[in-house]
User: Fold these one by one.
Assistant:
Number 1:
Amino acid sequence: MPVEQTLSIIKPDATRRNITGEIIARFEKAGLRVVAQKRLTLSTAQAEAFYNVHKARPFFKSLVEFMTSGPVVVQVLEGENAIAKNREVMGATDPAKAAPGTIRKDFAESIEANSVHGSDAPETAKAEIRFFFCDLEIVG
Ligand code: CMP
């Protein structure tokens, strides 16, 4: 299986509840390695740019407000099949539909405040990693 990198965001609902460590432990237990990490607060322009693909969706404005409502922890996760593995560990977008034992099932507050984001494909992973990190900041 190929070694991949994927972009992960621990969202404001999780930083507010001080559960970033519990979430990171889930990634590590699944064999994913944190090779870059920083905590920051997104500006409105940054959140709009990051979620530009969802611009036409009815939930876009609310999503941007939520993502700027507090700090986030952005990370690059590395491992075999990291993109799919991370999505498996996160669970479905809607916590009501997420499988038992997944991060979203155990921690998410709602479909919007769903604790984590993860890239969905190799091309988006590359673009999303580049959005937050330069090469010097990614240390495997
Ligand atoms: P994420 O994986 O970061 O990708 C887009 C985000 O939009 C998603 O997680 C949720 O936070 C949010 N989202 C997706 N669908 C909905 C929805 N139906 N209502 C509100 N927010 C949503």
Number 2:
Amino acid sequence: MLPIVELKNIAHAYVTDRGASLAIDYLSLFIEPGEFVSLVGPSGCGKTTLLSIVAGLLTPSQGEVLLLGEKVSGPTPQVGYMLQQDYLFPWRTIYENSLIGLELTSQVTDRTKESTLHLLNEMGLGAAIDLYPHHLSGGMRQRVALVRTLATDPEVLLLDEPFSALDYQTKLQLEDLIVKTLKDRHKTALLVTHDLSEAIAMSDRVIVLGASPGHIRKTFEIPQNIRDSQPFYAREQEGFNELFREVWSELEASERKE
Ligand code: ADP
Ligand code: MG
């Protein structure tokens, strides 16, 4: 199958007044359409840098990113980016916040407005559309951020620790909602998380990165029984704990190397 995202020998150095530092070292990766891939690794190993490169926000020093076979040379509506902070505009209602991506890409039409309202309803935000962000809980705000990201109908979603500011229960609910929403729409996702059980429960594949500079240490294919279960129940599946320990020890080894 043609990969939807292909990273070819990506290297990236940041240049500052104190010199240049290599953040990513010749990293290559294929992601298939509809796949859910997670990146885990020690702080500073280049996860955010990698997502920014895939998003077209940062040009790598070496190598290239292909999106459906075409070289990425800047941000494109085919890629949506969701961050830990929701960055909702406080002066706009929930509905108006949801339309921002569509406005920025000149795609506001009756049809896209209707599909955004539909998404808001699907995310359980139907009663909140005329409220302002400060009226909402953290979990609701992240759901608005998800609607805003999905409203432009991107093929690929980049998620940079989107649950890390949420309480545990809200986070579990949002994991289920995101996996279901993306699988139903056959979207592709690249998630960065600190939480190994979240990575295993949500993904088809978990990639452990090592630091200094960032590189792939090991890739774990998630067994079918875990993939087939919603993240909440995936944690109870046979083999989950063993896999957790394997990924954990790989991550520990990568942190020891620092
Ligand atoms: P992660 O998301 O895995 O924590 P980052 O991609 O944010 O890692 O950072 C990777 C490395 O690049 C770190 O050593 C970080 O200090 C450095 N870095 C990140 N952004 C910049 C920047 N804008 N300028 C200089 N160095 C940076
Ligand atoms: Mg980061």
